[in-house]
Amino acid sequence: MTRISAPVEDVWRVLVAFDEYARWHPVLAFDTKPDQQAVVGADLPARVSGGDGAEQHVTMRIVDAEAPRRLVWEGGSLDAVLGRHSFVLDPQPDGSTELTDSEEFFGPAATDLVPALGQLTEDYARYGAALHSRVTGLSG
């Protein structure tokens, strides 16, 4: 969970500006046009880079979008492993936003990911910090 010192609408705008991810996200860059909408069924071609410099091309499909509170996308295949990534934005009484960033895995190879889940938790904290910096940098 990450606390972001900005209103939920500001966080949402950055979260759904897919063409801007390369400017702030440590490992994810979408190959989308600036007008790409966060609508259920939309495909988001992307590149994920690991710490070794290798790049993997993936496509995320938006499966839930409830502006400005919830965004969920999936990538992969149930034949091997399907990942479902969720962002939940919760407005706080002080005007800040609490971000919950999580992932679920499905499919026969999902159990192979269990050893990596601890690293994912650390990675989400890093991604949340990067999102916080981007949002507050734009609104400050």
Question: Could you explain how this protein is built, in words?
Answer:
The chain has 140 residues and is an alpha+beta fold. The model has no long low-confidence stretch (mean pLDDT 89). The protein is globular, with a radius of gyration of 15 Å. It contains three helices and seven strands, in the order βααββββββα. The chain is 25% helix and 37% strand. It has helices spanning 8-15, 21-24, 117-139; strands at 2-4, 28-30, 43-49, 55-66, 70-76, 82-91, 97-106. α1 (8-15) packs across α3 (117-139). A seven-stranded antiparallel sheet has the order 1-7-6-5-4-3-2.
Ordered list of secondary-structure elements with their pairings:
Layout: E1 2-4, H1 8-15, H2 21-24, E2 28-30, E3 43-49, E4 55-66, E5 70-76, E6 82-91, E7 97-106, H3 117-139
Antiparallel strand pairs: 1-7, 2-3, 3-4, 4-5, 5-6, 6-7
Helix pairs in contact: 1-3
Rg, Å, rounded? 15 Å
How far is it from the N-terminal to the C-terminal residue, by CA? 22 Å
Number of strands: 7
Mean pLDDT: 89
Shape: globular
Q: What low-confidence regions span 5 or more consecutive residues with pLDDT below 50?
A: none
Query: Beta-strand percentage?
Result: 35-45%
Strand order of the largest sheet: 1-7-6-5-4-3-2
What is the makeup of the main sheet?
A: 7 strands, antiparallel
H/E series: EHHEEEEEEH
Helix content: 25-40%
Note the total helix count: 3
- Strand-pairing-aware structural class: alpha+beta
